[in-house]
Amino acid sequence: MKACLYGGPKSKLKSLCAQWNAGNIWIYETPEKNQNKISDFEVKKYHGTFGENLFKSYAALLAAELVIKTECAGGGDNIPNCWTLLNGFFDGLELSNEEQGKTGLIRFLWRFIHLSGLMPDTEECEICGRPLFSRSETKEDLLKEKIRLLEEMFGTPSENNEPASPSAQAFYSYNNSSFICEECARGIQGQKLQVSPIGINYLSSIINLPASASRNMPLDEESYLQIKQIVFDMAEKAANGSLNTLKSGIGIL
Fold first, then answer.
1. Per-residue confidence of the chain (253 residues) as pLDDT tens digits?
2. Contact in structure between 182 and 132 (CB atoms under 8 Å)
3. 148 close to 165: Cβ distance less than 8 angstroms
4. What angle do CA 239, 237, 244 make, to 5 degrees?
5. For residue 162, what are the CA distances in angstroms to 33, 94, 148, 198?
6. Which of 128, 151, 157, 235 is deepest in the core (most CB within 10 A)?
């Protein structure tokens, strides 16, 4: 639904209907003129810091553009969940500093990709089915090895003091929008991005762990830059085209 807002620059209603405010809106319909007019707006949530921080402004714009272009992750039953996801991101971004907001954007985009049904498998190679970074046959064993790998990388010994299992390399295939193992990467054409165990584990935790736990998962700078490229690529694929916010704000985001 589209509605017009009338009033001058000093109008109280106009200030209430500022960008990023959320709340209850009253609309007066005039069917004979095919016109809708905003008559009142009760603000429930202000997101004032979006206008004070350039990153937050672009992050909010990117999220909004993605939701609009995909019609709420495809519409239908996804609409309520997409609305909840978007509002949760806005509220969290308002309370975060810029560094927290950067990883928050990663988590929002990955959850959105999951909601859209486009999320690739983070446990096994898309082509051969081999577990990434492990040759374990069960996901339980794979999880144990990932935990040991994290502990070794961050200098915290595991309980049994056993060294982490050696990990193979893993890659993100831009052509297939999927994760593939080192052997399959040798035989596949097109652009590929090597991804660290930390990066893939972080993406996996976003979906498989509670929000509070995924926020606290370790993520080094190199891994952050890798998965940022991945979620940006998949976001544009979800939108079936380029996103204007990424074009204009890639140096900020």
1. 788 888 767 778 888 888 888 889 899 888 887 888 888 888 888 888 999 999 999 999 999 999 999 999 888 989 999 999 999 999 999 999 999 999 999 999 999 999 999 999 998 899 888 888 754 334 554 455 556 556 655 665 444 444 333 346 899 999 999 999 888 888 888 899 999 999 999 999 999 999 888 888 989 999 999 999 999 999 999 999 999 999 999 999 9
2. no
3. yes
4. 55
5. 75, 42, 8, 19
6. 235
